[in-house]
UniProtKB/TrEMBL annotation:
The protein's name in its UniProt record: Aminoacrylate peracid reductase RutC
GO molecular-function terms, A-Z: oxidoreductase activity
UniProt-listed InterPro entries: RutC-like_sf, YjgF/YER057c/UK114, YoaB-like
Organism whose genome encodes this protein: Pseudomonas fluorescens
E.C. number(s) listed in UniProt: 1.-.-.-
EC class name: oxidoreductase
Gene name linked to the record: rutC_1
Source organism, top-level taxon: Bacteria
Coiled coil: none
Keywords from the UniProt entry: Oxidoreductase
The organism's taxonomic lineage, starting at the top: Bacteria, Pseudomonadati, Pseudomonadota, Gammaproteobacteria, Pseudomonadales
SUPFAM superfamilies associated with the record: YjgF-like
Amino acid sequence: MNAITRIESNPKLSRAVVHNGVAWFSGIVATDWSEDIAGQTRQVLARLDELLEGVGSNRSRILSAQIWMKDMVADFDRINEVWSQWFTPGETPARATSQVTFDEADIRLELIVVAAVKA
């Protein structure tokens, strides 16, 4: 039986769960909400880099991503610009993007990913 590893767990959630060569990550938001959408996106991607490294993966091994945005009309192009610069061409994951309402008014996006862990 393959072990299930839970990363940064608390009573509500685990930051990541790894099983059978796959890592599922909880939603990641920026820590400095005063930043614009590009700044918040860069913060989220930097945190994701750290989390991926912590489970033995990297951005080239992201299988799927869900991006939840506060305002798709205003921010979609700017998120895509930062997103496209972060990935090596040809290594982008499957992706879905949706508009949502966040509890905190200054949060502009939340990112959820699934990644393969290096064998």
